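Treating backbone geometry as a discrete language has practical consequences that deserve illustration. No coordinates are needed to read the tokens, only the vocabulary itself. For completeness, the protein is quoted in full, as a sequence line and a line of structure tokens:
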Amino acid sequence: MLRRLYDWTMGLAAHRHATAWLAVIAFLESSVFPIPPDILIIPMVLAAPTRAWRVVAIATVASVLGGMAGYAIGLFLFETVGRTIIEFYGYLDKFARFQDWYREWGGWIVFAGGFSPIPYKVITIASGSVQLDLWTFITVSIISRGGRFLLVAVLLWKFGVPIRAFIERWLGPLTFLFVVLLVLGFVVLKYLA
């Protein structure tokens, strides 16, 4: 099922309404959809490098709006909808610990989640369920999601087609490593400084 969904999404990148589809995918990925918008961003930027910044802006705005929908699911519909989504992605057993992290780290969890391979919808729903300050959530989402999409676009814009395989293979692990190092830096500052 996921393979068919992936193939369908890849086909959207060549569609004449690709930017509209990008907005829809980025919105839904932040609240319920399992396929990240990167798979549309990559072929769209490769096809028209001069429009890379427009693609990043569309993906960022739609992702943050979708994140706000995920936040609302966590805030108002956690027991009926949010729990089902979290369970679908296999994070329900870790969710209580995740909520504790939110109480301690707040916006930093959102920042890390915007870059990491953790499904962003888990982050958005968790943010609403613990009632993270909405403006903090929005601001950090803009920075982290925009930063992630911008990173992909800049690499594609600068290096073109050869970087596509590298991005598809290593972006998740590299951004995860970056987030781990960032979090460790904050832990060191908090407890050792």
